[in-house]
Design goal:
CATH topology: Nuclear Transport Factor 2, Chain: A
Shape: globular
Radius of gyration: 15 Å
Helix content: 25-40%
CATH class: Alpha Beta
Number of helices: 3
CATH architecture: Roll
């Protein structure tokens, strides 16, 4: 999986061309899209996504954090199978925010990465 991909979110770079990104950032972008896309949001793939945005408005609890970890792990394994191996997912749920940390390993190189994603009720 080498090369350049369109950067997410789509934007124009300083030279006026479509912004591109490298492999590691592309995988991180794919993880972010899975986490914050709600099932039903994509017409041609209604089951795509994890739906974390909706969890921001749930009452904060340890049970919500544990179920969030399971939801994220399952979604990433489903949609990125063959690209990455998810090693660990941690979730911290606040009163109006959710923070997810994903530790993943690229299957082609074995390189380990850690990415942190945060959403609050305002975004």
């Amino acid at each position: 999986m080498t090369g350049n991909w369109l950067d997410y979110p789509f934007h124009v770079d300083p030279t006026g061309r479509t912004a591109l990104t490298g492999e590691d950032d592309h995988i991180r972008d794919m993880i972010e899209q899975i986490l914050f896309t709600s099932p039903g949001e994509r017409v041609m793939r209604p089951d795509f996504g994890c739906g974390l945005k909706q969890l921001v408005f749930m009452p904060a609890s340890d049970a919500l954090a544990a179920s969030t970890q399971q939801l994220v792990q399952g979604s990433l394994m489903r949609w990125l199978d063959g690209i990455v191996a998810v090693e660990r997912v941690t979730a911290e749920v606040g009163e109006a925010s959710i923070e997810v940390t994903v530790v993943w390993r690229k299957l082609d190189t074995g390189e380990r990465q850690e990415s942190r994603f945060v959403r609050d009720g305002l975004t």
